[in-house]
Amino acid sequence: MKSPCLLVFLLLLEHSAVPAIAGAWPGSCKTWLVQSIPTDMPLLTRVPGVLSSGEVLRWMAGNATRRLDVIAQYWQFLAQPENPKSGDYGFSEADLDEFGANEGRAVYKALEDAAERMVDIRLLQHSGVFPDFTQEPSDLASGKPNVHNVTLLLGDWWGSGIVHAKVWISDSRDIYIGSANNDWKSLTQVKEVGIYLKGCPVIAKHLEVYFDNLWTLSSLNSTEHTRTVWDKTWQASRKVPCWSHFIPFKQRCRSPLRHYLEVPQVVGYPIITDPDMFHVPIVMTGYNISSSLPHPEYYASYLSFAPPELLFDRIQADEQAWVETIKSVRYGGSVRISSMDWLGQSRYTKQTIYWSSLSSAISEVIFSKNARVNVLIAYWAHNLEGTDQHLKSLLYSNILCKSSKYNKCHGKVSVKYYRVPGFNKTGAALINGTATGNTYPAFTRVNHGKYAVSDVRAHVGTSNLVWDYFYTTAGVGFGTYHPGVVAQLQDIFDADWNSPYAVPVEPIAAA
Predict the structure, then answer these.
(1) Which is nearest to 366 in space by CA: 416, 412, 415, 331?
(2) Does residue 17 surpass a pLDDT of 60?
(3) What is the Cα–Cα distance from 225 to 241, expressed in whole angstroms?
């Protein structure tokens, strides 16, 4: 018989022992990073253990047993080579097979099968894109009492903005958050990054609240629930929901949304000093990391949402999550940022709004933490005007860092454009019966991922780095301190950064 002291020692040993990360903890979330890699990129190094976007979306639809919620900007899983209004027009079936259009057909078929299995499906999207807008979700819902489809126009609520989040929630347990649109081209012709969480009901529950809030907006009369106010923070006249933080507290209406976050006084976004963190164990099954890591439940993770009027409980704003990911860098450490768009201003508002949140955060860690920051921005057929100037202004931080002999600043920011081969040869193959010479369908061949990763924290989101995406547009982010996610996301970035497809942005010459 063991002595009481020995029993206590054995119990302590049992609870302090650290098992291999590959082993599943009871109640743990299984996690994978997800990518779409365009065809014809032979010089891009593949990162082991990363899943493909098409497979993940097909699995989520195929494995749903009772409920599937989908937030999308637009739908085009089915190619339209015979539609003269489509960017797919004129390409042959052989071309489409080579492009990987079958990936989209497979996902759409999985959704049809889920509907036939009587899975309760809710589809929420923006009005879509030309030429068929919301035809596919409308077809999925037609004649099926278990499939519900709504279109939400955020411009009615904020004056501009769209549903830009790309989120799938299956059976209130499995989640996809990332940059991939519900479009066959997003699966094989656009470079995307996302995260797949399996068996995570705690996180899924919070995502469902956000989904429900968007769903509620679609049924409300925006005219009765909006105000036009002078926004002192952004020095612009803006249309906002009547419960907005940007309306004086005593003049606000009562929010019709669940668990709305009330903040009496706000400058800009409601910065939450202690945002909700999930402490569920996260296990990466597709990436080898050291078994000497601490218990996985100690790695906090979080969700973030935009715009601010949709925040609830203690969930942080999407802008705050990006800023704090940058500022989480260790002294002398590194930050990696990837986005399709970068502008230090608004793009779609009537009055242009200057926005320096992310560029300021980068400059701060360069100065105070001697951090190395690498920024990778897409270069493609539809670059936003002003991108080059804003990126070069970011590089000016390097000059300021060395501007005085009294500065103890040794950090640096580097910026590259990412050029997917064929980015300048996209569009319909035929226009008015004449061959265009385009090699790929329209709106393809672009680095579309939106993520940031320091040496301790990873953030995967749906928002481009432009003011509008944080203040008038529906966006979702997921972040974690799990070292496996951090390391693998760094590997994804480094594969892009070190590839021949990444080209340095030249700085402004010092005076």
Answers:
(1) 412
(2) no
(3) 6
Q: Comparing C-alpha atoms, which of 182, 179, 185 is closest to residue 39?
A: 185
User: In 203-355, where do the E strands start and end?
Assistant: 226-231, 236-241, 282-284, 301-306, 316-317, 334-339
Q: Please tell me the predicted confidence (pLDDT) of residue 289.
A: 62
Q: What percent of the chain has pLDDT over 90?
A: 82
* pLDDT of 7 higher than 90: no
Cβ-Cβ contacts under 8 Å for 496 (sequence gap 6 or more): 44, 191, 338, 376, 418, 447, 502
Q: Which two tokens stand for residue 370?
A: 């001697």
DSSP state of 188: H
Q: Which residue, chain included where needed, has tokens 């105000």?
A: 227
Q: Hey, is 12 helix, strand or coil?
A: helix
Q: How many CA atoms lie within 13 A of 500 on its CB side?
A: 4
Contact call for residues 383 and 403 (beta carbons, < 8 A): no
CA dihedral 432, 433, 437, 440 (to 10 degrees): 80
**pLDDT of 208-242, one tens digit each?**
999 999 999 999 999 999 999 999 889 999 999 99
C-alpha triplet 437, 441, 442: angle, nearest 5°: 100
**399-429 pLDDT, tens digit each:** 999 999 999 999 999 999 999 999 999 999 9
Cβ 366 vs Cβ 397: under 8 Å: yes
Nearest to 20, CA basis, from 298, 299, 293 = 293
Q: H or E element: which one contains 106? A: helix 102-116
Other C-beta atoms lying within 10 Å of the C-beta of residue 98: 13
pLDDT at 271: 84
Spatial CA neighbour of 83 closest among 130, 126, 139? 130
153: amino acid identity, one letter: L
Type of residue found at 2: K
Q: What is the DSSP letter of 260?
A: B
**Judging by DSSP bridges, how do beta strands 67-72 and 236-241 pair with one another?**
unpaired
- Burial of 223 (C-beta count, 10 Å sphere; 0-12/13-18/19+): exposed
Distance of CA 398 to the CA centre of its chain: 28
- The SS3 assignment for 64 reads coil
Helix (H) or strand (E) holding 470: helix 467-471
The answer to which of 133-137, 180-184, 491-495 has the lowest mean pLDDT is 133-137
CA 395 and chain centroid, separation: 25
